[in-house]
């Protein structure tokens, strides 16, 4: 029997166990007062696969990436217990095979200077699977498949993170096969901020001559003394207790049902609709269940700031089909007011309110898109700006045809969509 201890805010919250057949279970510590996941309620009764799925959603999805993670971090194997042991992972939980909490004294974090960070960026561009720096104390885990790595900013210095030293930032350089992704993601985040969406601080940064997109983690809180506290969160796939392979199977209806159960007032539901409307309006076809998260603060639940915002239709090779249909519409270019009203009616929400949310969000996106990609203010090339704004206008052509046409004309693009 193997054990992986779970710690939250420095206190034991429970333990995951793995039997000889590889089955993973979970039990709460007697002192636990709130659940670590909506799929693992404090009173029990969860599905047998929920504990394993909760853990697997904290790791990269690709077996190749997991092998690379084990090799570069010194983990004993690609087993989920070995990969998460003493790693800095998303959310507030620290995992350890030992029954003692990792501390900076027991697991120090090495400095990462500009040259080392630049080297890591170049390495990622050359070999997109090499997310991890080869340091015995640099251990982190990130989900997904896009090349990225984490750093901790402490006392004006950068460090490689681990279970004892929480990361504060995620860096996502452009990799071969999807050029401009760092520029487009930075602009998408800027556009969200201009539209009044809740987003973390993010932008482009240069380390040793190498540019990268960098975003401050929303699941971290800097205390007054400069130390960093982990904030507990989970993505919606973890909330459903489903494995990473099911991230595109979660529908808007499923999410709204989950949020209504957590918050019968539907405040969370309407706010989530606004976030989904933003993703639709920027042409983000990859807003699946792992790209939305909730923050679990004791017994209260709130939506996390938005993340992984990207006009995916910028790249013509990307499937324009939405990860979640809107009232039957699969493509942002075909989403109309009636689709939003249909979504509302089928989920017990007010169609007038949902339509207003979608239209208002779309208008804000179209009104601010040019500023978010302004070459003079941002340094973005005219080529990138024109292509991205054209895709945003196209995403809104059925919802707000006149506004989309005017945006194209203001960018010197053909007015016919």
Describe this entry's structure for a reader.
The protein is α+β, with helices and mostly antiparallel strands. The chain folds into 2 domains: 173 residues, no CATH class; 164 residues, Phosphatidylinositol 3-kinase Catalytic Subunit, Chain A, Domain 5 (Orthogonal Bundle), CATH 1.10.1070. Helix content is 34%, strand content 18%. The protein contains 13 helices and 16 strands. The strands form 5 sheets. Strands 6-5-7-9-8 form a 5-stranded antiparallel β-sheet. A hairpin with a 5-residue loop joins strand 10 and strand 11. Helix 12 packs antiparallel against helix 13. The longest helix has 22 residues. The radius of gyration is 22 Å and the shape is globular.
Measured on Cα atoms, how large is the radius of gyration?
22 Å
Strand tally is 16
Q: Which spans of ≥5 residues are poorly predicted at pLDDT below 50?
A: none
Question: What percentage of the residues does DSSP assign to strands (E)?
Answer: 15-25%
Q: Give the SSE order as H and E letters.
A: EEEHHHEHEEEHEEEEEHHHEEEEHHHHH
Helix content: 25-40%
**Oligomer designation:** single chain
Task: Give the number of helices.
Answer: 13
Question: What attributes does this structure have?
Answer:
2 domains; single chain; 417 residues; Phosphatidylinositol 3-kinase Catalytic Subunit, Chain A, Domain 5; alpha+beta; four-stranded antiparallel beta sheet; 16 strands; five-stranded antiparallel beta sheet
């Amino acid at each position: 029997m193997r054990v992986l201890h779970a710690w939250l805010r420095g206190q034991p919250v429970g333990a995951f166990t793995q039997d000889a057949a590889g089955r993973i279970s979970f039990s709460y510590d007697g002192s636990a007062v709130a659940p670590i996941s909506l799929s693992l309620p404090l009173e029990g009764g969860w599905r047998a696969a929920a504990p394993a799925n909760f853990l697997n959603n904290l790791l990269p999805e690709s077996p190749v990436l997991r092998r690379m993670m084990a090799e570069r971090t010194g983990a004993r194997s690609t087993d989920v217990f070995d990969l998460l042991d003493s790693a800095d992972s998303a959310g507030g939980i620290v995992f350890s095979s030992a029954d003692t909490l990792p501390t900076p004294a027991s697991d120090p974090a090495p400095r990462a200077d500009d040259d080392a960070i630049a080297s890591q960026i170049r390495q990622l561009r050359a070999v997109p699977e090499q997310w991890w720096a080869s340091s015995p104390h640099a251990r982190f885990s990130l989900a997904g498949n896009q090349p990225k790595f984490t750093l901790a900013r402490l006392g004006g210095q950068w460090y490689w993170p681990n279970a004892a030293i929480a990361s504060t930032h995620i860096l996502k350089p452009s990799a071969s096969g999807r050029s401009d992704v760092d520029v487009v993601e930075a602009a998408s985040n800027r556009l969200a901020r201009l539209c009044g969406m809740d987003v973390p601080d993010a932008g482009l940064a240069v380390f040793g001559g190498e540019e990268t997109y960098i975003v401050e983690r929303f699941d971290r809180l800097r205390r007054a003394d400069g130390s960093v506290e982990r904030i507990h969160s989970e993505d919606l796939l973890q909330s459903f207790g489903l494995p990473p392979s099911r991230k595109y199977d979660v529908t808007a209806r499923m999410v709204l049902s989950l949020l209504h159960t957590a918050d019968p007032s539907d405040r969370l539901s309407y706010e989530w609709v606004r976030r989904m409307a933003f993703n639709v309006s920027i042409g983000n076809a990859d807003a699946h269940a792992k790209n939305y998260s909730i923050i679990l603060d004791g017994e209260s639940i709130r939506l996390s700031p938005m993340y992984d915002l990207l006009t995916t239709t910028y790249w013509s090779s990307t499937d324009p089909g939405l990860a979640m249909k809107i009232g039957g519409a699969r493509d942002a270019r075909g989403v109309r007011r009636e689709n939003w009203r249909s979504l509302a009616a089928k989920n017990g929400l007010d169609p007038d309110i949902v339509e207003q949310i979608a239209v208002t969000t779309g208008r804000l996106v179209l009104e601010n898109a040019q500023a978010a990609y302004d070459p003079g203010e941002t340094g973005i090339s005219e080529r990138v700006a024109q292509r991205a704004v054209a895709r945003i206008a196209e995403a809104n052509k059925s919802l707000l045809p006149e506004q989309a046409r005017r945006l194209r004309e203001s960018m010197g693009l053909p007015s016919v969509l």
